[in-house]
Every structure is written in C-alpha cells, then in structure tokens.
Design brief:
Length: 225
C-alpha cells in the first residue's frame, strides 16, 4: 500500500513544512508529500521541496478571491491528497475550498484556541498577561480558526518576553505537534464529525496535549489495543 498523501499549503519560510519533510525522511511519519501550494510565488518554503510538485500563484493576478481559491483547489485536488495541511498558510480560505476538502483539511495556528483567532497571536498573549501560550492543530471550517481542535502544545510565557522570543520558544513545539497530529491522521485515526474531532471514532471533548517529549497524550481508553 502506498503511503498516505499529504498536500501542504504554505506562505512563508516553511519551517513546519520542513518538520514534516524531516519526519518522513527519518521514518517517524509514514506519508508522502504530493504537492506544496502557495499564494506567494517567492515563499522560501517552496525552496525546501525542489523535487516535489509545486504550485504557486499570486492571488492579486486573479479577477477575484474565489477565482484564486478555485485554481488553488483544482491544483490541490489534482495531487490527490488524503490530507491537506495549512502549515503557515496565511491567506483565508474561502468556503468553497473548505467544503471541497472538509474533514481532511488541517491548520496549525499559533495560539491556544479558542484564544486569539487570526493574526498577532504572540503579541495578544503578551498584552493579555498570559502565563501560558501555545499552538493548536485544528480542522478547518469556513469560520476563521474556529474548527474542532485536535491537539495543542504549550510553552510558558517568561518575564521580558517579546513576541519574537515567545514565537521562537513555541516554534519547535509547533513542529512536534504538527507531525504528531499528522501521524494520527495518516494512520486513519482522525476524523471530523458534527463539529468535533474524532480519534478512533471517539469525540475529543478537549484537545490532546503534547507532552514535553513531543508525544501526544491520548485519552486512557484509547491506550489499550
Ligand atoms: C507558524 O508559527 C504557524 O503556526 C503560523 O505561521 C507560522 C509559519 O511558520 N500560522 C499562522 O499564523 C496561521 N494563522 P513556518 O512558515 O516556518 O512554518
């Protein structure tokens, strides 16, 4: 059987994409990246996958937002992905795109959702005086950053932190989180139904936490074979 197929959407430097590539190369993730797609033709992330199908287009060269989304969706669909992952994809996906890939469309977001949907999450956590910050991997739904959260990782906020120092502390934890969730997804253990994330067919009522060693802590009943 061929490895599960992952399409990755990126806009920037691509460190999360790199984490997925590294995990596949090192044998920690049984999957293949079948395409990398971007709204930024010059995104550094695209340079990380020279031998892979790459698609990028400047959204401003399309007559409308929905035209760009449709072209992106067709390109993603052509790569026949089992899972579509937004890994630092910074453009809001329209409803038609989301509905086309719904249930197999994941995003990593740098906050402990439902806190801080949208942009500037590190700044907002600092401004709020939060002692704890983190990232979430969630299913994508039409409403921005509002889909069922599968798993989260946390980091402490330290005195004197800036948005940059906080994001630097979080980023390696994000990488572990994304790879761990993709592990469950590609093993066929993850689904979305009725606004909930399902693990092995059971609804998750709280996000799975990532432990300090980078492993997801699964609910007890799921530990037994
Ligand atoms: C990551 O921190 C990711 O969580 C965030 O962008 C960064 C991309 O880094 N995503 C969002 O803010 C989505 N709303 P990367 O390009 O190095 O993977």
């Amino acid at each position: 059987m061929s490895a599960p197929r992952i399409a990755v959407l990126v806009s920037g430097r691509g460190s999360n994409l790199q984490a997925i590539l590294d995990a596949i190369r090192q044998g920690g993730l049984q999957a293949q990246i079948v395409g990398v797609f971007s709204d930024k033709p010059h995104a550094a992330a695209l340079q990380r996958v020279a031998g892979t199908l790459r698609w990028a287009a400047d959204a401003r060269s399309f007559p409308s937002r929905s035209d760009f989304d449709a072209a992106l969706a067709d390109a993603v669909a052509a790569s026949q992905p089992d899972w579509v992952v937004c890994a630092g994809y910074m453009r809001i996906l329209g409803d038609a795109f989301v509905e086309r890939f719904r249930g197999r469309l994941l995003n990593i977001h740098p906050s402990l959702l439902p806190k801080y949907r949208g942009l500037h999450t590190h700044e907002r956590a600092l401004q709020a005086g939060d002692r704890k910050h983190g990232a979430s991997v969630h299913f994508v739904v039409p409403e921005l950053d509002a889909g069922a959260v599968v798993a989260q990782c946390t980091v402490p906020v330290e005195s004197g932190d800036t948005a940059q120092s906080l994001s630097q502390r979080l980023l390696p934890r994000e990488h572990g989180l994304l790879v761990a969730v993709l592990g469950l997804a590609t093993e066929g253990r993850l689904a979305e139904q009725g606004g909930f994330a399902l693990l092995d067919g059971q609804a998750l009522f709280t996000p799975l936490p990532l432990d300090s060693a980078g492993h997801l802590i699964l609910p007890d009943p799921l530990l037994s074979p």
